[in-house]
Specification:
The chain is an alpha/beta fold and 236 residues long. 35% of the residues lie in helices and 19% in strands. It is built from 7 helices and 11 strands. The strands form 2 sheets. Strands 4-3-5-2-1-6-10-11-9 form a 9-stranded mixed beta sheet, sandwiched between helices. Strands 7-8 form a two-stranded antiparallel ribbon. The longest helix has 25 residues, at 69-93. The protein is globular.
Length: 236
């Protein structure tokens, strides 16, 4: 592993499920503390860190039965705010300066998002947590992850997954599925690989921001990727 980080500024996407790791509760506070320690290592190495988090540990709009889709997605955006505030608290306890910026105005809890202000926080060494997705229904958190990465001019988009690589098929279903170590977003879109929302994949293809998809079974993997270790699937 290199002594210098491979990226100066990253956008890290965490799944909501990851925050509830190995527990029946909505949040695993020991795991949050562990992730905060790894993020602190990244910041101490000179890396500017933006984070967007999902809400699968609390609510999934597509699992809402007969509920109106817009209302269900609004609930999901609110759930990302809960996760974002939990991350902020874990980061602050780790000695980091962290700010939550929401795509939906809610000044009692966090700042309203603007790209200029987010970049200013990052340049000041603060971790920025992006909440409430894009502020609009019908988008998974994959799409705002790509858009925020573009807006903050990130050097890389890191997608921390519950699986170690992108595969040719779901390895939990298809035993013949093969690991893909390097690919393009065109390949993902054309082959409908279920690794990222297709809207996000098309946006990412045009962004020219390199993406690394890797497993979050060990939180230390975040630091390993940031430091340039070959891990997971690189998408160019």
């Amino acid at each position: 592993m290199k002594n210098e980080p491979a990226y100066k500024r990253i956008l890290l996407k965490l799944s909501g499920e990851a925050l509830a790791k190995d527990t029946d509760s909505l949040l695993n506070f020991d795991y949050l503390e562990e992730v905060a320690g790894v993020i602190k290592k990244c910041v101490d190495s000179g890396v500017q860190v933006g984070i967007i988090v999902g809400a699968g540990n609390i609510w999934r709009g597509r699992s809402s039965g007969k509920m109106d889709r817009t209302r269900a997605d609004n609930m999901g955006m609110l759930a990302t705010c809960i996760n974002s505030l939990a991350l902020q608290e874990a980061f602050c306890q780790a000695g980091l300066d962290a700010r939550v910026m929401s795509a939906v105005p809610m000044d009692k809890f966090c700042e309203y998002y603007t790209a200029d202000e987010a970049r200013r926080h990052l340049e000041a060494g603060r971790v920025v947590i992006f909440a409430a997705g894009l502020g609009s229904p019908f988008f998974s958190t994959d799409t705002p992850a790509v858009i925020r990465a573009m807006e903050i001019e990130a050097d890389a988009l890191l997608l921390a997954k519950n699986i170690d690589y992108l595969y040719t098929a779901d390895p939990r279903v298809d035993p013949t599925a093969e690991k893909i170590e390097e690919t393009t977003y065109s390949h993902i879109v054309n082959n409908r690989l279920n690794a990222i929302d297709l809207t996000a994949a098309i946006l990412a293809e045009n962004s020219k921001i390199p993406t690394v998809m890797f497993g979050l079974d060990k939180s230390e993997n975040i630091y390993r990727v940031v430091m340039g270790e070959k891990l997971g699937t690189v998408v160019k």
